[in-house]
Amino acid sequence: MIRKATRADLPRISEIRSAVRENRLTNPNSIAAVPALTDWLLDNSMMWVWVEDGEIIGFSAADSRDGSICALFVDPPYEGRGVGRALFAPACNVLREDGHKTAWLTTEPDTRAERFYRADGWIEARRDADGQIVFEKRL
To answer: Mean pLDDT throughout 84-95?
Structure first.
């Protein structure tokens, strides 16, 4: 089941963000800041969670201010089951409803995430100075 995230979900969302195998936060300051990051996401974007058997196993977030998908993470034991793809739908829908014609996101190169986005029709727009790929997709 997909539903909007609430403040009560933030501890579990932080756990998932810290547990991922790719696009990991490696800076100790960033890792310590995960609760603040997830709190910021809830306050500044639309956020959804996938709940299965009463447990959150993935989340997504979209920021209508700039048209970005600012989070899409799935707890590693649940990867490859379509959770991420399903969580994309509400994130893209809210951006479309808010008038965006194109969505964008970033990810590390040479990752499953990169392959996932390319297979889903996202187009590489550029590479940031830190090597992150910036993808775009028409909504």
So the answer is: 95
